[in-house]
Design a protein that fits this description.
With about 300 residues, the protein is α/β, with parallel strands linked by helices. It has helices at about 15-30, 50-55, 70-75, 90-105, 115-120, 135-145, 150-170, 180-190, 230-250, 290; strands at about 1-5, 35-40, 60-65, 110, 130, 175-180, 200, 220-225, 255-260, 280, 295. Strand 6 (about 175-180), helix 8 (about 180-190) and strand 7 (about 200) form a beta-alpha-beta unit.
Length: about 300
């Protein structure tokens, strides 16, 4: 089959969980299908389309824009809206979608996360698949359960209700929705109820050849958190860990150290209780030596659906 695959993140180099999943899905699809990739590219890692053309894609098209910028720009004005703040369509990607649909008759179109769903819906008379990495509704519900000020709890509850309503409407427009865990699948089925849309689980996995023990010698007393602070769930995890857990560890073992990997671009570091024992690696092309060289890997994640690739 000829497949058009939309991705929010350019999948190679695969330096975060979303990219890893998309890259491995593309490799699997390419074994028996012809895949065209339409992807955004942003951040510090330079995209490598040649690698994808050599390994898994027949055609690769890139839109060099951050799709999250438009959502941030409308966040305040969307508070009173009945729909949640989601990625607003980017004109360049919409134009590319129209061009691709005119040039090729695709047999399937796959949207990787709700952020690219709008483009998949532009491709008419073609079965659509929504490939989600987290259940947005489950994530919103988890935030509702966390302690917060009354006004914050009300805002989170409203966001959860809007997200559930949005999911119920959006998912019905796809023939199939895939989730990464049974918990996410159950959450999705609860909003779809008796809709005809199928919901299946496509779990994450690990490349045990690429990720293996012994890549780097272990440094005693070293901790690592391999997650970019630009991602809300990672920032929340470190905010709680550094304020509640880290001081106790430092008191017991003054010599321990913590390395937090990943980009800190536009991150409010003043909201984190950083001290001399904490180092920020910034963006690194290969995180494996930092993880393999740590005595302990911490993952105090409180938010987000899906599975924890940093634990896998």
């Amino acid at each position: 089959m000829k497949i058009l695959f939309f991705s929010t993140w350019f999948p190679y180099p695969a330096d975060n969980g979303s990219k890893l999943r998309v890259y491995q899905l593309l490799r699997s699809l390419a074994r028996t299908h012809q895949v065209t990739l339409a992807s955004f590219s942003f951040g510090e890692a330079a995209p490598d389309p040649k690698h994808l053309l050599d390994t898994c894609c027949e055609r690769v098209e890139i839109v060099h824009r951050n799709p999250f910028e438009r959502a941030r720009a409308t966040r305040a004005s969307r508070f009173a809206s009945l729909t949640p703040v989601v990625n607003q369509p980017v004109p360049e990607m919409a134009a590319l979608t129209t061009q691709l649909a005119q040039e090729t008759r695709f047999d399937r179109v796959i949207a990787s996360t709700t952020g690219t769903a709008a483009y998949a819906l532009m491709v008419q008379q073609t079965p659509r698949v929504l490939e989600e990495h987290n259940s947005p509704g489950r994530w919103a519900h988890e935030r509702c359960l966390q302690p917060a000020r009354p006004t914050t709890r009300i805002r989170r509850w409203l966001s959860w209700q809007k997200t559930r309503r949005y999911e119920a409407t959006l998912y019905r427009q796809f023939a199939l929705c895939t989730m990464v865990s049974e918990a996410d699948r159950a959450a999705t089925l609860s909003v779809l109820k008796d809709a005809a849309t199928r919901v299946e689980t496509v779990p994450n996995g690990v490349d045990c050849t690429y990720n293996r023990p012994g890549i780097a010698p272990v440094t005693p007393g070293s901790l690592v958190f391999n997650g970019s602070l630009t991602y809300d769930a990672n920032y929340d995890a470190m905010q709680v860990f550094l304020s509640s857990v880290w001081p106790q560890l430092r008191q017991e073992i003054p010599s321990i150290s913590l390395t937090i990997t990943g980009s800190v671009a536009d991150v409010d570091l003043t909201g984190l209780a950083l001290d001399s024992g904490v180092s920020l690696s910034g963006f690194v092309e290969d995180v494996r030596p930092l993880v393999a060289g740590a005595a302990v890997c911490v993952a105090p994640i409180r938010q987000g659906g899906g599975t924890r690739l940093k634990i896998l």
